[in-house]
Design goal:
By secondary structure, the protein is of the alpha/beta class. The chain folds into 2 domains: about 80 residues, Arc Repressor Mutant, subunit A; about 210 residues, D-Maltodextrin-Binding Protein, domain 2. The protein is built from 9 helices and 13 strands. Strand 8 and strand 9 form a beta hairpin.
């Protein structure tokens, strides 16, 4: 007999307290349900149910088996639903969260192509400098930059961005170019006010050692775009991801400092709740972003 049918018959008997109601729920005869349960007990070599003329209840072994069987049945239903959903065209509203730095610079551009390809999907994009949580903040998807440590949320890496110390040519002409990490202590360092480790830069030296530098500049901001603009204006030196500064560097508004230091990078992730990847709209958007960044040469940038 079919193992899943045996499990379902047994679970339905336990759920309904007897064979009669279980048979009604399954659309089978009482004798068919009894036959499935007997076959299951015979195959396992264990009595799973205590049967009396008045009631049916699980044995100790039966109760333990019931918990596992219910999970198997749920997994089977979800597996069937996943296959069905993957054949359905993406549609519906997608609530997306990201930082202004990344959302304003890259997601807005990517959305045009995605919405053109999937016209039945609408996107509600929320930009915030707060560390958004897909579950707690009720998002279908959150884009995060940096190391992810939350094992309760699913994560798919989309790209990698390089970190670089940068400043304007005018700033370096006036204040000098730092040649060593220690030289940064003599400069105005622009930094994020929302960093969990405070006003500290963690840099890798040429020897591979991690060095910390206290950012002692007179300007902080909670978004990287403001720090970039401050660096372009000659207000100090910033330590920013490439996705923010690459256009400014191409135009000569900013130049790198300490370029001989080992490359430091941060990964960019799509974060979403467990079990949500089966939604066609979410799966389509994550796959689109991954392909978009690769096509644009931004798999690592």
């Amino acid at each position: 007999m079919d193992r899943l049918m045996e499990m379902e018959a047994f679970a339905k008997v336990v759920d309904n307290g007897g064979f009669t109601d279980a048979a009604k729920k399954m659309g089978l005869s009482k004798s068919a349900v009894s036959k499935h349960v007997s076959s299951l007990e015979s195959r396992l070599g264990a009595r799973l149910l205590n049967r009396t003329t008045r009631r049916v209840s699980p044995t100790e072994i039966g109760l333990a088996y019931y918990d596992k069987a219910k999970q198997v049945l749920v997994d089977a239903i979800e597996a069937d639903a996943m296959v069905s959903s993957m054949q359905i065209a993406p549609r519906g509203s997608l609530r997306l969260g990201a930082s202004p730095d990344f959302g304003g610079n890259h997601l807005s551009n990517a959305l045009g192509g995605f919405l053109g390809q999937f016209p039945e999907v609408s996107v509600d994009m929320v930009l915030s400098n707060r560390n958004l949580d897909p579950v707690a903040d009720n998002f279908d998807l959150v884009i995060r930059v940096g190391q992810q440590q939350d094992s309760s949320i699913m994560a798919k890496k989309l790209a990698t961005t390089r970190m670089q110390i940068i400043g304007s040519p005018s700033y370096f002409e006036e204040h000098g170019m730092p040649n060593r990490i220690d030289d940064l202590n003599q400069h105005s360092l622009l930094h994020y006010s929302s960093q969990p480790n405070g006003s500290v830069w963690k840099l890798k030296s040429c020897s591979g050692e991690t060095r910390t530098v206290r950012a002692s500049g007179n300007l902080t901001a909670n978004d990287g775009q403001s720090l970039l603009q401050a660096a372009e204006a000659g207000l100090g030196i910033a330590f920013l991801p490439c996705f923010l500064y690459h256009k400014a560097m191409e135009s000569g508004k900013i130049i790198p400092a300490l370029a001989d230091l080992p490359v430091q990078s941060q990964d960019i992730y799509a974060m979403y709740p467990h079990g949500q990847y089966t939604q066609p709209k979410l799966r389509a958007f994550i796959d689109y972003l991954s392909d978009h960044f690769k096509t644009k040469g931004m798999g690592v940038w």
